[in-house]
């Protein structure tokens, strides 16, 4: 995956009197607003309140500009997260395709470690399946071909934390906000032959109580389909997935609020568990 330092893309003229969202200065300003919201633990207004016709392309440029700010602070992109990978969430948003955000090393929490939630806005946690990329992966590939590029599969969790009030947003807003990416943890990697487990039972526990149960099949019917979608989005972004990159394929259940002082354990059949404690 390439490491953008400036947002690429053409400049387009204003439309309907809206601010020219697509010039580099506007993209940078929106990225700064979202970044500062995250860093000050405060929500911000929807970008589409200012620019109702914000395009998905422009939103991805804002996303990349936000990542560029993280890179300037010394972070490194280590993969991608897929969003809206359940049919229910797609229907809720009125969309028929997945989105993605980028993961940086600063977002990764070691398995079993403590996550400080005091600087987060309104975090939620969800059980996920993660892939470790073994071969460069990009383009329109079949799920079977995508699997051939995989070096490992693991149970994972993702902490999402929208920079918008009440997790309410339109599609371009959430894309610009890096698909609500915040933090994640990965359990032990397993050999990719476990990838065949398209219907793995998954359980998320908080303080020993089950708060969500589901199946990896909730992720587009099979998480490898999400991986193939990541390859397509990687090509579109001109950022192939590289060996060592992590892809969070999506959530197996709805996300639940994450509070301080909680111990969360996510278990997936065949893949074991991953844990996090919050303070
Ligand atoms: O990881 C996800 O599926 C979340 C994508 C962004 C939407 C949200 O914040 O719920
Ligand atoms: Mg997720």
Automatic annotation (TrEMBL):
Region Disordered, residue ranges: 1-22
One matching Pfam family, short form?
Answer: FAA_hydrolase
UniProt feature, compositional bias: Pro residues: 1-11
Keyword Lyase carried by entry? yes
Which controlled-vocabulary keywords does the entry list?
Hydrolase, Lyase
Give the Fumarylacetoacetase-like C-terminal domain ranges.
122-277
A single GO molecular function term of this UniProt record = hydrolase activity
> What protein am I looking at?
Fumarylacetoacetate hydrolase family protein
């Amino acid at each position: 995956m390439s490491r953008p330092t400036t947002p690429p893309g053409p400049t387009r003229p204003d439309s309907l009197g809206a601010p020219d969202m697509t010039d580099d200065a506007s993209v940078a300003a929106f990225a700064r607003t979202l970044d500062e919201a995250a860093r000050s633990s405060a929500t911000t207004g929807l970008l589409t309140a200012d620019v109702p016709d914000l395009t998905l392309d422009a939103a991805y440029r804002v996303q990349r500009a936000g990542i560029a700010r993280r890179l300037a602070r010394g972070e490194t992109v280590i993969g991608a997260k897929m969003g809206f990978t359940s049919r229910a969430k797609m229907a809720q948003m009125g969309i028929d395709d997945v989105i993605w955000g980028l993961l940086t090393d600063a977002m990764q929490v070691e398995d079993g470690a403590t996550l400080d939630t005091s600087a987060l806005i309104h975090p939620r946690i969800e059980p996920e399946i993660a892939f470790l990329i073994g071969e460069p992966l990009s383009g329109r590939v079949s799920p079977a071909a995508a699997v051939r590029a995989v070096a490992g599969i693991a149970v994972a969790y993702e902490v999402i934390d929208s920079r918008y009030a009440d997790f309410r947003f339109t599609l371009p807003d959430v894309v610009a906000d890096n698909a609500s990416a915040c933090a994640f943890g990965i359990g032990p990697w397993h050999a990719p032959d476990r990838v065949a487990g398209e219907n793995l039972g998954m359980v998320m526990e908080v303080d020993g109580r089950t708060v969500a149960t589901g199946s990896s099949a909730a992720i587009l019917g099979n998480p490898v389909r999400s991986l193939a979608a990541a390859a397509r989005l990687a090509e579109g972004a001109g950022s192939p997935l590289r060996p060592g990159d992590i892809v969070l394929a999506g959530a197996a259940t709805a996300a639940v609020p994450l509070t301080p002082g909680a111990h969360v354990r996510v278990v997936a059949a065949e893949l074991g568990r991953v844990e996090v404690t919050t303070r």
